[in-house]
Amino acid sequence: MIPKLHYISQGNSLAAHLENIQKACNAGAELVQLRLKNTSEKKFLKCAEEAREITSHFQTRLIINDHYKLAKEVKADGVHLGKTDASPTIVRKHLYTWQLIGATANTFQDCEESIRKEVDYISLGPFRFTETKDHLPPALGLNGYATILDVLKTKTPILGVGGITTEDVTAILKTGISGIAVSEAITRNFNSIKTFNQLLNASSTAEQRYTFE
Length: 213
Prior knowledge:
The chain has 9 helices and 8 strands. The protein is α/β, with parallel strands linked by helices. It has a single domain, classed as Aldolase class I (TIM Barrel).
């Protein structure tokens, strides 16, 4: 089963990313995504190895952003691919069979394509404008989510992402979204992980329905 809450790492340095990952794990995060930009492969690998040590200690799942070969090397739980990264179909051939592949989507067509390429989950966004990414497409909001999910009708977990706060969770889940990926709100207050988890699990008596082969 895939956790309903994903923490996407933030930090002004590699050390800050690792410190924040540790804080997230300590606060109860079940899955964290290591997201580093403009970092050499050597430094990324070192950071990924340390992130793997931290998450293993807490029995937290680790997803690596973009770098699927490093994800395999450190035996992370999976990789998250952006729209300009390698195709999930190609990446699948390089990973262990048990590793997850997540993909970023902004439109119904993006979702369809990712499902066709048999990704394990999709991050659909942005929910609202956020400064954690450059050159964002237009925000989808609740109406965008509801419209896409109503037509999509898929068993692939769809996560909301992009500027989401605890105040948004209940309304987002009503659109059919399976879970959420959060960066800024959690980095500002790691205690919010408990609140996010409570809100996500209160939405249904059952845990996430989806299981992976």
